[in-house]
Amino acid sequence: MSVHQQTAFRFHVAESENGITVGFPADTALTEANAEALQRELLTLSTSRTHPHLIVDLAGITILTSVVLSKFLAINKQVQAIGGRFSLHNPTPTVQMVFKVTRLDTILDVQTDSTVLPA
Fold first, then answer.
1. What are 95-114's pLDDT values in tens digits?
2. Does 82 map to a domain?
3. CATH (domain of 39)
4. Model pTM above 0.90
5. Which domain holds residue 70?
6. In the chain, which ranges are E strands?
7. Number of folded domains that form the chain
8. Measured between alpha carbons, how far is 60 from 11 in angstroms, rounded to an integer?
């Protein structure tokens, strides 16, 4: 069963027994301007559940700054602290390169194979 909702930040949320999936509109930029709101809303989604699996679909993301990368690291740590899982799926080639260059793809769960999202 899937429940869709619109958030104050520009992304959509779908929930199922497999987890909480967050997706973005095409050509979304994740920058310093929206990093705090992104972190706040993703943590609100995940910390209100027991053992959440928070899945972020990056297919619509064109720009991802270092501030957002640090937010992803913090979210990952906080979700793991409550027994959950945080994963990033379907990065665009540009975003995938950011993860590779920073080597954050070795720390964060980044799924690049364009598989169907679990939720």
1. 999 999 999 999 999 998 75
2. yes
3. 3.30.750.24
4. no
5. 3-111
6. 3-6, 12-16, 19-23, 28-30, 53-57, 61-64, 85-89, 109-111
7. 1
8. 10
